[in-house]
Amino acid sequence: MGRAKNVLITGAAKRIGAACARLLHSEGCNVFLHYRSSSAEAQRLCYELNQQRPDSAKIIQADLLNMAELETVAREACLAWGGIDVLLNNASSFYPTAMPDVTEQQWDELLGSNLKAPFFLAKALAETLADNNGCIVNIIDIHAERGLSGYPVYSIAKAGLAAMTRILAKELGPAVRVNGVAPGAILWPDHDLSESARLEILQRVILKRRGEPDDIAKAVLFLVNNADYITGQILTVDGGRTLFC
């Protein structure tokens, strides 16, 4: 058996990030968990994973919009176990922005977390990823293809991340594979979403049910461990929602 893969996961404290951390860890990976504000959740997850396998999980707090802090995350992740094999860009701001009221601060935050930070982390880690024949997996969104009404800036940012996935596959290949996962209805937003709105969404899902964070984690695991000849691709995990016009 080869050595354990070392994985940096951004936005790892809860939701999809935590599901990916748990599954990758269960498959023998060491996981370096980034969080911005969810300190308690990150500490609990790190403790949980280290109870299962000592010194297999570490955490770091950072605002990835701050380039100095982003570079610290990349540096500390490399030092943790001697290099990084997988970068999972999961951290994402998500909230509506009515077109007439969009502020520059909202633009900077949404594009910063969903596009700028993934790019500069990839840049910072390109050398160690190449040394380890590693990979990058970006968590995108089905709305990168057809924007989500009321969320123009978020949709633009995710569209940029989809484009970035494809161009970085060219720029970093052949040593580094770069792919993405585009979730559909997996977790309802933190802000209020009425029961009728939820039912309306599910009516446009072929499988007639919401997905789970583990559905995304399994797709990530496939791209990390079983996709040696796949790069520049975006795997849609949406229960068939994008089959509707």
From TrEMBL:
<protein>
    <submittedName>
        <fullName>Pteridine reductase</fullName>
        <ecNumber>1.5.1.33</ecNumber>
    </submittedName>
</protein>
<keyword id="KW-0560">Oxidoreductase</keyword>
<dbReference type="Pfam" id="PF13561">
    <property type="entry name" value="adh_short_C2"/>
</dbReference>
<dbReference type="InterPro" id="IPR036291">
    <property type="entry name" value="NAD(P)-bd_dom_sf"/>
</dbReference>
<dbReference type="InterPro" id="IPR002347">
    <property type="entry name" value="SDR_fam"/>
</dbReference>
<dbReference type="InterPro" id="IPR020904">
    <property type="entry name" value="Sc_DH/Rdtase_CS"/>
</dbReference>
<comment type="similarity">
    <text>Belongs to the short-chain dehydrogenases/reductases (SDR) family.</text>
</comment>
<dbReference type="GO" id="GO:0047040">
    <property type="term" value="F:pteridine reductase activity"/>
</dbReference>
